[in-house]
Amino acid sequence: MTAGRPGPAGAPAGDRAVSAPVPAERRHTLTFLSWAKGAAPVFLDTEVDMSAVEAHRRAAEQAGRRCSTVACVLHAAGRVLARHPDANAAIRGRGRPRIARYPTVNAKVALDKRLNGQRVVLAALLTGVHRSSPEQIQDELEYWRRGDPDRMPEFAGLRKMQRMPWPLRSWANSSAVSSLRRRPRTMGTFALTSLAHRPVNGFHSFGGTTVTLGVGQTTERPVVRDGVLGSAPVMQLNLAFDHRVIDGAHAADVLTEIKEALEGFAAPADRGGTARERPLPGKGAR
């Protein structure tokens, strides 16, 4: 037998596996995954010409404002889902299931954060994205991304739940998501995950909502326009839908309309209109 060389700092040395309890900071993820097993996710994807979005982002930057790809996708998806109440919905129950359709569009956005020093995935909740400009959505994203989960009041319930034993933690999670009336304020009405900060073109994720969007990187790729070969910034956009709530044809309509909204991107400011003002989370929004 040969001895293994020491690995990087924090890695086990030699050939022996080292087992340890799952960190308390990640227990909410396991609880959510256990709850989400009852869904029936199906996955679609498409490619989006992001030329119009990139033009809008450059114009925003010249005006001294940041507008990320995620903000633009949330803006487009919010308006599309407002036109599709059957997809902007949630389901509960098995034997006698019930579906709730929501008049407002709330987005659950996955965040890569550190909680008590442990790298975890957390969720930001952005309310009423169908009525907000991309720049207003960006302001909210910045609030969530810059905030410290160890101190943010929005994560107080999560921090408390992580200290609970498994049966009580599972009950607390179920209580938070079981009510169809409260679901938009706890889970959002759709979810979005982005891995565009890495060279990831596409991925499929299910966020526990009827529609989940996966955003990959935008890269310059060959395209044909009017029979002429050229190049354009292209992004792969993935959509997971819960088959218990909608069918594939309807999900394809939603994905196509989001694609078309991004390829013909025109925010309220671009059209000379104004978007509503609303306070940021933690500053009077709730």
How would you describe this protein?
The protein is α/β, with parallel strands linked by helices and 286 residues long. The protein is built from 8 helices and 8 strands. Strand 2 and strand 3 form a beta hairpin. The longest helix is centred in the last third of the chain and has 16 residues.
Spatial order of the strands in the main sheet? Answer: 1-8-7-6-4-5
From the alpha carbons, calculate the radius of gyration and give it in angstroms.
21 Å
Helical content (DSSP H or I, runs of 4+): 25-40%
Q: Determine the structural class based on helices, strands and strand pairing.
A: alpha/beta
For the terminal residues, how far apart are their CA atoms?
62 Å
The count of strands amounts to 8
Proportion in β-strands: 15-25%
Arithmetic mean of pLDDT: 86
Number of helices: 8
**Low-pLDDT windows of residues:** 271-286
Compressed to H and E, one letter per element, the order equals HEHHEEEEHHHHEEEH
Describe the largest sheet: 6 strands, mixed
Shape: globular
